[in-house]
Amino acid sequence: MARFLGYRLIQSAFLLLGVSIVSFGLMHLAPGGPLSLYTLNPTVTAQDIERVKALFGLDRPVHVQYLKWAAGMATGNWGYSFFGGRPVVDIVLDRLPATLLLMGTALALALVIGVAVGILSAGRRNSVFDYASAVAAMVALSLPTFWFGLLSIFTFAQTLRWLPAGGMVSTGGGGFVDRLEHLILPVVVLALVLVAQWSRYTRSTMLEILDQDFIRTARAKGIRRSRVLLNHGLRAALVPLVTLAGLQVPLLVGGALVTETVFGWPGMGMLFLSALNTRDHPVLMAILMVGAVMVVLGNLLADVLVALIDPRVKLGHG
After folding, report:
1. CA 187 to CA 102: how far, in whole Å?
2. For FRET with 145, which of 4, 45, 115, 195 sits at 20 to 30 Å CA-CA?
3. pTM tops 0.85
4. What is the CATH topology of the domain spanning 92-309?
């Protein structure tokens, strides 16, 4: 296990290095540059622009800027925002808990509902419930996240007035119930696609397992159908399901960015949009790297869990 983790960590480090180089290069190739907003201000002179460039090190070659930025990221010095001058690490850490709360709640909801629907669909193959869940999953996978978010706001916030339209708390602050009400709509929207994928993948995996000999043997012994599904079928399906969870981390991270933007959730998504509009490169790079780290850690955790669940899986370099 230690050898496997060491190899994967080294592999992840090189992957993150590649992501950082590509992201940094593309950001500097974008037209206008990070100080383009200053140039639109008629009161800002060319001398002012040059002083700002020197202040942030933008007058140096790109590879020198990257090496300085990478050294800072590795040591916890993520630089300063071009707009406001706050340390980037403080800005990101202020927003990260809200994003983790949204992602964690959505993932838990998707796991519970998706696996449950998948098991019931497999156990009741070709039933009305099976067909209804298939249609619902197809509709969910066909809906763009932002469109479903706007539809949810119109229906449950504007028309029915059951839930708040956005934000994390009401004006003036609120208690646990108030925060929960603000969390419901963005979590449901973010979890929608995940539930659809989990339900269909669980169903197909369970159907494949239920046709195997050891399941027929369990049924022949007179074991109840529900016990066969949960104790035998689900246990055998855990390995592919955990693998799917690792593969869905990028979808979860990307979906969180869109969902936060739609609902005004004060997390990394809103911060990314704001930094993108102002071309705040240090903040954008920090968000991109935090997202990349989440994806890498999610896949690494999935690999470790698969090895712990199924002892037949060998932890090698493959």
Report:
1. 6
2. 115
3. no
4. MetI-like fold (1.10.3720)
